[in-house]
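[User] At your convenience, examine this fold.
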Amino acid sequence: MTFSTADARTVAAILHDAAEQEILPRFRRLAAGAIRQKTSAEDLVTDADEAAEKVITAKLTKAFPGAVVIGEEAVSADETLLDRLDGAELAFVVDPVDGTKNFASGLTLFGVMAGVVVRGEAVGGVILDPIGGDWTIAVRGEGAWTETADGGRNDLKVAAAKPVDEMSGTASWSLLSEPLRSRVCANLAATRSAAGYRCAAHEYRMLAGGHSHFALYAKLTVWDHVAGWLIHQEAGGYSARFDGSAYQPAHRDGGLLCAPDQASWQALQAALFAGTEYAGA
C-alpha cells in the first residue's frame, strides 16, 4: 500500500470540511451539557469532538475503501477498536479535536489530527489548524510542510541543535507516575524554558517549524502522536521513547522525547532523566 501526497491532501480536505461543519460553529458557543468529563476534569469531550469524528470517519471510509479508521471518541466507548490497528493494510488514527480542554475553554489552541499507518508503520500525517485555516502534512520520505487554502506552501525544518540550557520546548508531565514525575519536573529547570499548551497538534507544529527545540510526552495515545511524530521526523527531527527505543504506533507506554537531532536528544535525555530509572539510556 502506497500513501501519496495526493492522498494526504484528500485527508486534509476531509479534516477541513469537518472543522467547518462541526467544530468551528460550536467554538465559544457550546450549549449547557455539550461538555462532558471522561476520566477527569482535564480529560473532556464535547459535542464537537463526537460530531466531527463521525463526519471524518464516514468520509475517510468512503475515500479509502477497506481502510480501518480509529477515532479517539470511538475508542473511549470501545477500547478493543485499538486491536484493529495491528496488521491493518491501511489505518487512520483520528483526533477530532486535539486540545479539547482549550476548545471548551474558548482558547484557540486546538487542532484536528489524522495519522496514517500502513502495516504498523507511520507513513502519513495531517494536522489542521481550524482557526488559522491551514494544515501541516508529512508523507514518509517526502518531507513535511504547511499548506494554506490559497495554495501556499512552507517547507518545515526543525530548529538547530542547542546545548540543553539553551533549549526551549514543551513538556506534558502531569501523567508521569511518582517519583518520576517530581524528578523530571525538577530537572526541566536545566532547560531554558518548558511550557505546556495542552495541545499536541500545535506543539508538534511548533517543533517541526523550528519554533521550539523539544517536546516531552508522558502518554502515548496513538491519535495524539502518529501524525505529529512523523511530521517532526520528516522535518529533520529525532525522537525516541524515554529508554531510547524507537517509537512505533503500536506503543502505549514508555513516553516520548523529541529533539532536533540524536546528539541533542541524548544530552536532553541525560539532563531530564538524571536520577531516574531511565538514566543512562
User: Anything to note?
Assistant: Residues 216 and 257 are 5 Å apart (CA to CA). The longest strand covers residues 121-129.
